[in-house]
Write a structure and sequence with these properties.
The complex is a heterotrimer of chains A (429), B (309) and C (299). Chain A has 429 residues and is α/β, with parallel strands linked by helices. In chain A, 43% of the residues lie in helices and 17% in strands. Chain A has 2 domains: 217 residues, Periplasmic binding protein-like II (D-Maltodextrin-Binding Protein, domain 2, 3-Layer(aba) Sandwich), CATH 3.40.190; 194 residues, D-Maltodextrin-Binding Protein, domain 2. Chain A is built from 18 helices and 13 strands. The radius of gyration of chain A is 24 Å and the shape is globular. Chain C has 299 residues and is mostly helical. Classes of the chains: A alpha/beta (429), B mainly alpha (309), C mainly alpha (299). At the B-C interface, helix 1, helix 2, helix 5, helix 6 and helix 8 of B face helix 2, helix 4, helix 5, helix 6 and helix 8 of C.
Amino acid sequence: MVTPNKPREGGRRGRVRKALVALTAVALVTAGCGSGGAADETGPVTLTVSVWNLAATPEFQAVFDAFEAANPDVTVEPVDILAEDYPAKVTTMLAGGDTTDVITMKNVTDYSRYASRGQLAEVTDLVQAKGDAKLAGLDAFDVEGKYFALPYRNDYWVLYYNKKLFDAAGIAYPENLTWDQYADVAKKLTKGEGEQKVYGTYHHTWRSVIQAISAAQTDSDQITGDFEFFADQYKMALDLQQAGATLDFGSAKQASYRTMFETEKTAMMPMGTWYVAGVLKNKAEGKTAVDWGIAPMPQRPGASGITTFGSPTAFAVNKKAKHAATAKKFVEFAAGMDGAKAITKVGVVPSLQSPEITEAYAALEGMPRDELAVKSLAPDTTALEMPVSEHTSDVDTILREEHELIMVGEKSVEDGIKSMRDRVKKVLD
Amino acid sequence: MANAVTEAPRGAPPRGSAQKRRTRRNTLIGWSFILPNFVGFALFTLVPVIAAFALAFLEWDSYRPPEWVGLDNFTQMLEDENFRVALGNTLYYAAGHIPLTLVAALALAIVLNGKIRGVGFFRTAAFFPYVTSLVAVAVVWRMLFNPTAGPVNQFLAAVGVSDLPGWLSSTDWAMPAVILTSVWRDMGYYMVLYLAGLQSIPGEYYEAARMDGANAWHRFWHITLPCLRPTTFFVLVMLTIQSFKILDLIQVMTEGGPGRSTLVLSQLVYREGIVEGNFGYSSAVALVLFVIVLSVTVVQFRLNERRNR
Amino acid sequence: MTAMRTAPAPTPPPVEPPPVTKSRPRGSRFIRPVVTYASLIVVAALVLVPFVWMLSSSLKRDNEVLTVPIQWIPEEFRWSNFVDVWDRIPMAAYLGNSAFLAVTITLLQLLTGSFAAYGFAKVRFPGRDALFVAYIATIAVPWQAYMVPQYIMMQKAELTNTYWSIILLQAFGAFGVFLMRQFYMTIPDELCEAARMDGLSEYGIYWRIILPLSKPALASLALLTFVNTWNDYMGPFIYLTSNELWTVQLGIRSFVGQYDAEFAMIMTGAVVSVVPILAVFLLGQRYFIQGIATSGMKG
């Protein structure tokens, strides 16, 4: 117990302070010390990999099976963590000195945190060794020239649409649309009232639906503090909401985008490629009758080529891994051709880019095979959803809060963008 | 433990060694009762709590060794707009949630303490909001509060309210909506505590009062309420603590929005700590939250003691 | 009637006789229960609305749950969900795990909580009140604030990923101590004094006098502890990693994916997980009957 005596001289206070720091340090930090001693990696190895929601995320099992087949003496043991609070658990586990070998990076922001704290092992040599193979989203993992994870999966945004509803309205499928044309089409496709109402499009409540796409297509940065480039996109979205051509923000908060699309309540929907696997599965199991297609995201007027945004997912090696060498092998495997092939089979877009993979992906059972679909699967530019810096999550929170206020009509677009700027500037200073 | 034994009793000073021996005996007996719970409590709750408070004066990212920063975390808090907003919202929430829940729980308990047929069903129904899945609670209340199609506003319009609130889509009305939902959710929980308290009132009191011709209101005011004081005190303290710590319901209903209109302190603690990795700052916010709750609780204790005298 | 005169907390019954309104209209005898029941039923309906939605959702397809506007009656009743949920996750094992944890923790909390509360309520010794405040004060610290230090301690003790971590964490909470202490305060000290005169030890008083008198408080503590443990998600989530240790709440959340969720399965799981609580509550609430606590006090 620290006795509540008043410090008479600076030295004493210093000692108390030092003791306090030391005590807390001892209590909190030594957890992992001594462990992390590399285990013997000759002979059979059980590699532990942290994953989320194993049962509902088939790509993990696909990679594990492929890796085990290629390395007969390795058994992969998944550490299954619930998707919802995955980062919270991983942060806590790593703080406690956990020795799980491979840690899956759910998003780039978390990655940059673990990497900057020194919780991940460097894998720069793997990046150098892969030669000219192209990994989409790799740049996001560059921390001052060093890499601590390799992406194996890269989802980007496309426009899903319901062919039946387009045909019924006699409107051509959404090819080469500008955002204005997209809004027009959405209004035309809206019909019905009350429970029977079918919306022209559906914007989910995530801020990326407005912000990330406009940043990508205006080649702007969401972290500099100036957000004028959001304005056009907001005006378009608010106009659609006003016209009743999309579900209002308040109601969308409790809606599920899958429900909207699969029960044919919306004719269009901008969404990530992760949904392909989901809709394929539900279609195959007869849970939805939607006749779906995918098209490239609408573009700004006068744009050349297709620009969209995406977010990579990566595997990293825990600094305290028990089987560091095997873990590294696994990370390399997952990002390589064999890993990419394995996850393509379950409908997931791999990070590795090659004509062979794109073809395999387009040839999936149930996949739309028209020209529009093929085009949407080969975007010219895929910008990163959110740039990585030490301020990313602070800025992310601010942008989300102001996004809500604009979308529910509490703030005008101008006011919203102004307070984004004011608040973000404060964080950056 | 040694502390407790040597501390002089606060009341009359000990007279002679017999008194001392008795004090020592009582201390030993008292501790023997407390110890089984205290060991578990001290090891796995008290120590981490103290560690967390120490962190408030350090900077720590959960991995690298902590660094001493003195009061920096607290000065940072003074300039943090999020903290000010969250503090205001937390106070707002508590000011609404505490009295409303208290009254609702007491009313439920009194009605459901009587001899009613099917009382088991009604008690269970009242308790059910507390065990219904939070997702279901959030979805249904969002629907009820929908500004245009929701039954709440349809009812208000029917009774002639012209300026309908926007509830969860409005910065002004989101907090009242959250408060109403949480009162609805928690009243059954505290009803259980009140039901237990009601059983400790001797039936003779009521019989005597009835013979004196007291009506129901008088019986409530002069017997039930005074006899329930220990329970009310307990409920009040727990409610205060839980209100200031509110997190889960807000997380699923609004996530602090729209904007920051329902951002509360516990959310800030979670966000800054686990999510952002600023464990020092997070602990500092928690420490401030703790001090606020503690001072309210101490006031409640003092008032309670004075009344008991 | 001695207990009545000497009871410390409550003020004595009213002295001044209130205006008597004895002659009520005859109809009131009939009307009052009707009004009571009618209002009770309305309140019960309001309170159960979300639960009804939960039930109805448990009979839908995943992509039919979150519709706008809300759909109260499923287009097609999919009773098969209640079969599927047992196939999709090891529901029986999860229910067993939850039951084990909830029962163990409730028993320990009842035992140590009521025991410690006696020390705080009926034994006078220096430092008692300060210690008690420290107990309650820790309840006021949000768990998120000390979660990581606590985890590190558990990891060092090699207790993570075992039930010990959850049991140690939750069985010794201050809540039970506080609740029981408050209840003991309503039991007149004279009762203990008399028992002491009769030569009963403090442990004897606790066991033979106080404990039998506190059935309603024990019942409410048991109920609330059971429900809180059963419904706890974050604690088991952080501490239990192996799937075979998971509880029902973790099982239900395993239907939430990275970008979407299987809402019908979640609701089905939630309905299944509520049934045991229902049973426990119906059993427990029987102890809230006037008279069982006071029968012993008529010294």
